[in-house]
Write a structure and sequence with these properties.
Order of helices and strands: EEEEEEEEEEHHE
Radius of gyration: 17 Å
Strand content: 25-35%
Structural class: alpha+beta
Length: 165
């Protein structure tokens, strides 16, 4: 394995780092008050398509997606606090702080907070994709109580590289 082709070609470096400090309000609240809080630490747009990184704060109530896979991106999960059930397509494991799951393109995966306590993890996807739209659409559906038909769910998932198993 070797380094990729350079993406920065100027003679000297430049100050261009972007802070996202811990005390900032979440970028998205899913499921109403007391629901999952999502912090967009880095989006595909802000990283030039290199990656996306979210801090995902799950409430004590059970939540998380059913098993699925993506065709265009990898996804990684790193548990920060609490216990999050992680699924690698073969078995479930109780992820504790410091536990990590990498899922390549096409890898079936899921996660759930079933612990009865709040839990937080980092979600990293590469390359950067416009995942914010997917989570924001789910939040809007939950907030309005809108009911989608099976065909509408299929269309939503296809637009966002989400293939349910």
């Amino acid at each position: 394995m070797s380094y990729p082709e350079p993406r920065y070609h100027a003679e000297h470096g430049e100050p261009s780092g972007v802070f996202h400090l811990a005390g900032q309000a979440p970028d998205l609240s899913m499921g109403g008050p007391g629901g999952t809080q999502v912090h967009y630490l880095a989006t595909g747009g802000s990283t030039g398509g290199a990656f996306g990184l979210y801090r995902y704060e799950m409430p004590a109530k059970p939540s998380g997606p059913s098993p699925h896979f993506h065709r265009t991106m990898t996804e990684s999960f790193y548990v920060l606090d609490g216990t999050i059930r992680l699924y690698n397509g073969d078995k479930w494991a109780d992820g504790k702080p410091g536990d990590f799951l990498f899922v390549p393109e096409g890898g079936i995966h899921a996660f759930r907070n079933e612990s009865g306590e709040p839990a937080t993890m980092l979600i990293l996807f590469t390359p950067g994709a416009p995942r914010e739209g997917y989570f924001e659409e789910l939040a809007e559906i939950a907030a309005t109580g809108r009911q989608l038909s099976p065909d509408e769910w299929t269309e939503l998932y296809l637009r966002h590289d989400q293939y349910m198993v």
